[in-house]
Amino acid sequence: MTLWIIVFFVIFFGLLVLASFKSFKKNRSSEEFLFAGSNIGAVLGFLTFAAALFSAFTFMGMPDFFRNQGLGAWIFLAFSDGLMVFFILWFGFRLRKRAKQTGYSGVAGMMTKCYDTRWAGYLLFLSSFLFLIPYVAIQIRGISIFLDAAFPYGVPSWTWSVGIVVIMLLYAEIGGLKAIVFSDAIQGLLLLVVIWIIGVSCLDMAGGMKAMFAEVERVKPSLLSLPGPNNLFTPQFLVASAIAIVLIPVSQPQFTTRLVVMKSLKSVHIMAFAVGFFAILVILPTAFIGLYGAINYADVPTSEYLSSALLFDQANPVAALAVVGLFAACLSTTNAQIFALGTELRSLLSGEDKKVMRATKLSLLVFSVIVLVFTQLMGDQLALLARVSFTGTSMIAPIVIGALIFKNPPKLLIITSAISFFIMLLSVTGVLPAQFSGMRMDFSLYIFQAVTATAIMWAHHSKEKSN
After folding, report:
1. Are 261 and 35 in contact (CB under 8 A)?
2. Cβ contact 441:240 at 8 Å
3. In the structure, how many helices (H) and strands (E) does the chain have?
4. Do the beta carbons of residue 230 and residue 68 sit within 8 Å?
């Protein structure tokens, strides 16, 4: 297997070097470096969006989620992603129109201009920083767990984390967003191929579809129904999760920026439908891998299950491809999110372009060091940790949506988002309870936002109409 790993890594790194070199030659300005010339086509746009959305979390978090929580995860993941696709059609149109009017240097910068106050931009950046840093950390944590379990006599897991971050920094600093987009394209295709090979292999080892479901029903029938063996998939959880996932393009700047830098609205629409199709294709085999784990590795730690199902139970070429695929997925996602944080910081800075760019590139290093610290603090529940990230960032959605609806959006939306964001942060950190009046805190906050933001927007619309 070692020889196969070396061969696949040589090919993968060769493609990365080529993409980085080609991108570096075209980076003649900060705009080109940060936004890839705003000329991303439908195919590259689809691959970069899908790769950023489905990452190391797909390889490891989703199979483990199916193993522990059951088929209700399909509603949580596939149904919610499908809803997000339709939302992108409206959101992409409004976002690109607004970005053209105000100029786009990042979501935080655009909100600062729309609301005519830096507090809107600061809140956007704070939300991204506090909830995306842990999300990036769980990507690296996930691949480190896998590599540490796969090679128990090698280097410690933190060394893998450092290596990934160093490669990520070099790649981002040299090639900029265009290089990351090319990396995403490679990773997206690799992800789809590898996850299906492993999924079909696990299905075959379980004796086929019918035999797999029969065995799961014998071992733990609660995996095949709602609310699942741990009573996770309650109506409140599923509704709140769907809202959080639908709002990912609104609340996470790495996705928002990708919608803006695509070369046309038609490309955005094609990309959205392709991402929806990709979501179904990539989630289905993870269910096979998860149920295979429920049959054979029900009570073992996450690291042991993943290393067995993705590595030791597979043929050597497949196992080697899984190692490279996991590494590629982790590298692509961490690159995209750290780079997005740097872009958001840059959109809040003013001054000479060279000095701002120098500060932006330095911020990438600082963010990466912070991520390394978090990798040592993260737990193994990758899917649930990812959901916390989606939910936390979604709390600032009223600010962004208000800016897309109104020319002069009401500043009260900033207060609504700020209250929701800080309550959610305090709930996640354990200062406030996880439930409020018998309801999940995130579900309660979504109700609060829906009622408050709707009232504020309606009053603002009525005032504009009367004037």
Report:
1. yes
2. no
3. 22, 2
4. yes
**Contact partners, residue 203, CB within 8 Å, separation at least 6:** 209, 212, 288, 292
Other CB atoms within 10 Å distance of the CB of residue 204: 12
Residue 197 CA to residue 226 CA, distance in Å, equals 28
Record the tokens describing residue 148, joined without a space.
């540490």
Contact 318, 4 (CB under 8 A): no
Please count the other Cβ atoms lying within 10 Å of the Cβ belonging to residue 82: 17
Cα–Cα distances (Å) from 132 to 204, 260, 455, in that order, read 37, 20, 30
From the list 384, 381, 287, the residue with the least C-alpha distance to 71 is 287
Mean pLDDT of all residues in 38-64: 82
Question: Could you give the residue ranges of the DSSP H alpha helices within 103-234?
Answer: 107-115, 118-150, 157-205, 209-219
Give CA separation, 161 vs 134, 152, 220, in Å. Answer: 14, 15, 35
DSSP annotation of 440: E
- Indicate the pTM of the whole model: 0.83
Instruction: DSSP for 290-328, please give it.
Output: HHHHHHH-TTS-HHHHHHIIIIITS-HHHHHHHHHHHHH
Q: Which two tokens stand for residue 404?
A: 């897309």
Q: Considering only residues 211 and 151, tell me which one the structure prediction assigns the higher pLDDT.
A: 211
Structural domains in the chain, CATH included, are: 2-384 (1.20.1730.10), 395-467 (no CATH)
Residue 325: predicted pLDDT: 81
Question: Token digits for 222?
Answer: 């609660």
Cβ atoms 212, 288 nearer than 8 A: yes
- For residues 189, 192, 193 and 197, what is the CA-based torsion angle, rounded to 10 degrees? 170
Nearest to 44 by CA among 252, 242, 261: 261
Q: What is the mean pLDDT of the chain?
A: 84
Q: In whole angstroms, what is the distance from residue 375 CA to residue 63 CA?
A: 21
